[in-house]
Write a structure and sequence with these properties.
alpha+beta; 12 helices; about 10% strand; rod-shaped
Length: about 525
């Protein structure tokens, strides 16, 4: 037997349910542009009817319903798409950093251009060619000095920029470690808050959205796996737990990230890209530039010394007396230790013999310059030559007075200057023995390698970014707020609310008639 006020209760349930649906629709509309927000919906169901199945049953036909109610408010979210997004996002994070680093390396190398290292190197060799035309010209010697200083400065500048880029990456790793620790702490706190809210039987939709947003951002920085448990998200990196329930189980520092990279557990993400850029990309180009500088100064070259040249007393082959004069019997070509070795075979304009080491380590004692262990960062022109360009060796000839036996340098001889100018096209074996090409060709190989790596990084970044956007588009099609759909829902719930209110008014009028207008006969 139904209650007299049964329909009033039915209308009331409908009003409450439609009000909740309208409020949820308003919440969706308000958060249409909120990052990480998932669309929410009210799950409505028919409430329990008046006479459920039982042993005793009234004879009244039909099972009278009691209206509508909602059992939950849930967010629309698909875990598969979340996992796919995080996997693609971590790939994008690593490649985007590598692309950015390689673009900076290209800017440092600045090739091809009219102001890059190759132009400076060409000017250096051209100055030697000009000096060979008039070895006694003071102006030509000063130009050799200046172009050499420009060459060493260019190498020093490239080395400094590479060092600064490495330091920048290193400091960014420290910044990212703090950012990671912050995300992990927030996820752990959200785990605790969600467990508390949901222990009361409610869905912590907005808190779950915040936690997923934190997890998405974390996935771009490092490779993680996410497991949802009753205690909340468990965040792992290659099996090592970072967050379990409400606790951060691992402190992430720069040292931790570097160790994880070395151990192979940090395999993707922005931090992976930073460490790889620092330890592989920047380090490799720094090493190649160091080898290029040392090869220019001390790399093995095969060269033929012209017949008639007179070697200094202190020569690599130990020749003395008349044997110092090169004739057809001298074994040609011979191996010379780079620019320094060749320059030390000649005679300077001031008559000093042998020639000085041309390239030295910056800051070394001018009276005893260091010409070994040269790198792009420390290569410099010999301080004695900087002070006096006349010490630049250009001659390979001397004359001996038959009466006094005095040996005099032929200052106008240009044999050595020509040999040095021709080094532009002479292969030099690198110090590590891996390359045997001209210095220009070795630098071209560096530029070519950089171009290929940069192109590949740009391609990979573009591909991974497209995949991230594709998955995000699919996620938004599922979880995103459509204002058109929400406006349609709002009208639907509004009409349902109005109809329920009208139904309650109608039934109120029926009850009024029953209560106030019946039983008045005979009064």
């Amino acid at each position: 037997m139904t209650s007299t006020f049964h329909s009033i209760e039915t209308a009331k349930r409908s009003l409450f349910t439609q009000t909740t649906a309208l409020s949820t629709t308003g919440h969706n509309i308000a958060n249409a542009n909120t990052e990480g927000y998932s669309r929410q919906k009210v799950n409505m169901q028919a409430s329990i009817p008046m006479e459920p199945f039982a042993f005793l049953h009234s004879t009244t036909p039909g099972q009278l319903g009691t209206g509508v109610e909602f059992d939950s408010i849930t967010r629309v979210r698909e875990k598969f798409l979340d996992d796919q997004y995080r996997n693609e996002n971590t790939n994008f994070g690593s490649w985007s950093i590598q692309r950015d680093t390689l673009e900076k390396l290209e800017a440092i190398v600045n090739e091809p251009s009219n102001t890059g290292f190759r132009t400076v190197m060409d000017n250096f060799y051209k100055s030697w060619s000009d000096l060979s035309k008039n070895p006694e010209d003071v102006t030509a010697r000063r130009i050799v000095k200046e172009t050499t200083l420009a060459l060493t400065d260019a190498m020093n500048q490239i080395s400094r920029q590479l060092g600064a880029l490495s330091e920048d990456l290193n400091s960014n790793i420290a910044v990212k470690s703090n950012e990671i620790q912050g995300y992990l702490g927030n996820i752990a706190n959200l785990n605790s808050a969600i467990v508390k809210v949901e222990s009361l039987g409610d869905n912590a939709n907005d808190l779950r959205d915040q936690r997923d947003l934190m997890t998405d951002k974390l996935s771009k920085i490092m490779n993680i796996s996410v497991t949802d448990s009753p205690q909340g998200y468990q965040i792992q990196m290659n099996g090592e737990a970072l967050v379990t329930g409400g606790a951060v189980t691992t402190e992430v520092t720069s040292d931790y990230l570097n160790t994880a990279y070395t151990a192979g557990t940090l395999t993707n993400g922005e931090v992976h890209g930073m460490i790889k850029s620092r330890d592989t990309l920047v380090s490799d180009y720094q090493k190649q530039m160091d080898e290029l500088a040392n090869t220019l100064a001390n790399g093995d070259i095969q060269i033929s010394i012209p017949v008639g040249s007179v070697l200094p007393e202190n020569n690599p082959w130990g020749l003395t007396g008349e044997a110092r004069t090169i004739d057809a019997t001298f074994s040609n070509p011979v191996t010379i230790k780079g620019f320094n070795g060749l320059h030390q075979l000649g005679y300077s304009l001031d008559g000093s013999s042998p020639g000085l080491p041309f390239f030295t380590v910056a800051g070394s004692d001018p009276s005893n310059p260091v010409s070994t262990g040269i790198t792009a960062g420390n290569i410099s022109l010999n301080a004695a030559i900087v002070a006096d360009p006349n010490k630049i060796a250009s001659s390979l000839r001397t004359t001996t007075d038959t009466t006094s036996g005095t040996e005099t340098v032929v200052k106008g001889n240009n044999t050595l200057a020509i040999l040095i100018a021709n080094l532009k096209d002479t292969p030099m074996k690198s110090i590590d023995g891996l390359r045997n090409a001209t210095v220009g060709a070795q630098f071209s190989a560096i530029v070519g390698q950089l171009g290929v790596q940069s192109q590949e990084a740009a391609r990979q970044t573009s591909n991974t970014e497209f995949l991230v956007q594709q998955v995000e588009t699919r996620r938004q099609s599922v979880s995103g707020v459509s204002l058109d759909e929400e406006m349609s829902n709002m009208i639907k719930f509004q009409h349902a609310y109005n109809a329920s209110a009208r139904f309650m008014t109608t039934y109120d009028e029926l009850l009024d008639k029953l209560i106030n207008s019946t039983g008045t006969v005979g009064r």
